[in-house]
Amino acid sequence: MGTGGVVAAVAVAGAVAAGAGGLAGPADPDQVWRDNGLRVVDRATREDVDCAAHSFGQVQELLTATPCVVLDRMLFTLTDDEGGTILVSVAWVEFDDRAKAREFKRVEDVHGTGDIRPLPGALLRVDDVPFTALNYDSDTLDGTTVVVAETELLTGGFTADYLDGIAALAVDTPRPA
Question: Which of 63, 67, 119, 157 could form a disulfide with 51 if both were Cys (CB 3.0 to 4.6 A apart)?
């Protein structure tokens, strides 16, 4: 599938989320991936209360001074029919007020300021991949939760624009229950 398909899907997903107040999600959270010619192969999730312990750089400094309420992280792989594979990391960082969430997002969104560490690849039986934050997106849910999504290429010929489109879709991944 070309980048245009993901970009169109991102636009449609954004319009649907905006029309629903950003809170509605699909009945089947993997449908968006199938609609884009991808399949979720494997997925791992973890919940933690110490965000600083799972971060680095200025992001860690901020989370040490302003602790989060809870951190949910998910790591999953997507594959296409041609054997291309993408590794996706999504983190939900929840705070007890909107100002803290805004400040976290402000720092997190600047490339090179640190990050939330993704779950280890071993949970999905893949090598650990250094996430570069070059294929990145973030959003704020309910004012107090910041969602951070990043993607990296494992195999195949996906372009950087395509990986960016996948990150934009991944930000809307339903939070683990």
Answer: 63
Helix or strand run (H / E) with residue 72: strand 70-79
Give CA–CA dist 30/42, Å, rounded: 11
**Model confidence, pTM:** 0.85
Residue 159 carries which side chain, given as an amino acid letter? Answer: T
User: How far apart are the C-alpha atoms of 75 and 90, rounded to whole Å?
Assistant: 6
Cα separation, 6 vs 9, whole angstroms: 5
pLDDT at 24: 46
Confidence of residue 29 (pLDDT cuts 50, 70, 90): confident
Our separate counts of H helices and E strands in the chain read 5, 7
pLDDT of 75 over the 50 cut: yes
**Integer Cα distance of 148 and 131 in angstroms:** 12
**Exposure b/e, 20-37, CB count within 10 A at least 16 = b:** eeeeebeeeebebbeebb
